[in-house]
Amino acid sequence: MRSRVPIALIRAAFIAITIPVGVHAAWTFEAFLGSAWSVPSPLSIHQYGEERLHFTARYATKPLVESPYYAWRIAKWSGEQAWEFELVHHKLYLENPPDEVQHFEVSHGYNLITINRVWVRRGFIWRGGVGVVATHPETKIRGKKLPWGDGLNGFYVSGPTIQLAIGRKFPLRGGLFAVVEGKWTASYATIPVRDGNAYVPNMALHWLIGLGYDF
Questions:
Q1: SS3 17
Q2: Using an 8 Å Cβ cutoff, are 128 and 163 in contact?
């Protein structure tokens, strides 16, 4: 009988370590820094009266340049499941523009705004989400610059997005915890350019690290 006690204690300790602390809290808030790698993808630019530009675009993220890459979310938990509202401030800088494209970036946000469903399994936090892309493009095509501040102060609701993610949280002190996460996103956006539109799909792998608090 006594020999079973250490085994039971070991099992209890293992469970305590592998199941994130605080997942049963009613609400959590998390904020992140990070970066992403965008898969090369087709970019199509249409300007009225001009030949269409269509090529495979390569993008940089430049997470610490100008407005940084960041994310935040708030979650309402029920046991080991939750609903979340999340914003990921993703960024795209075109690295291989053709001669007709003098400037092309979506850096003040290729913003991914999603509603997520979340589950805790074996100590890891899994989430899937759907939502919209809100963009703030800055472009100059064939010498024609998109006016700053058009749309909703420069922002446009541009298309749909989905995400899948896996993360882990680590208790620090009180309700404070650290978080690491990997995320995959797939999005499609139509953004304005001067005298036309650009069609900007994006698939990306993201890595994030942040802090959160259990309320």
A1: helix
A2: yes
- Look at residue 85 in the predicted model and tell me its pLDDT: 98
**Positions of E strands within 142-195:** 144-145, 156-173, 176-193
CA distance 83 to 114: 11
Pull the structure tokens for residue 59.
């993008």
Q: pLDDT tens across 116-147, in order?
A: 999 999 999 999 999 999 999 999 999 999 98
> Distances in Å between the alpha carbon of 16 and those of 22, 115, 171?
11, 29, 11
Q: What is the pTM for the complete model shown? A: 0.86
Exposure letters 122-141 (e unless 16+ CB within 10 A, then b): eeebebebebbbbbbbbbbb
pLDDT in tens, 175-199: 999 999 999 999 999 999 999 999 9
Q: Which amino acid is at 119?
A: W
Q: What is the pLDDT of residue 24?
A: 54
Domains and their CATH numbers in the chain: 4-214 (2.40.160)
Question: Which pairing describes strands 156-173 and 176-193: parallel, antiparallel, or unpaired?
Answer: antiparallel
Distance CA 201, CA 187 (A): 6
What does the block give as tokens for 194? 């001067």
If we measure between CA atoms, which residue out of 113, 52, 63 comes closest to residue 92? 63
Task: Quote the Cα angle for 118-112-66, to 5°.
Answer: 130
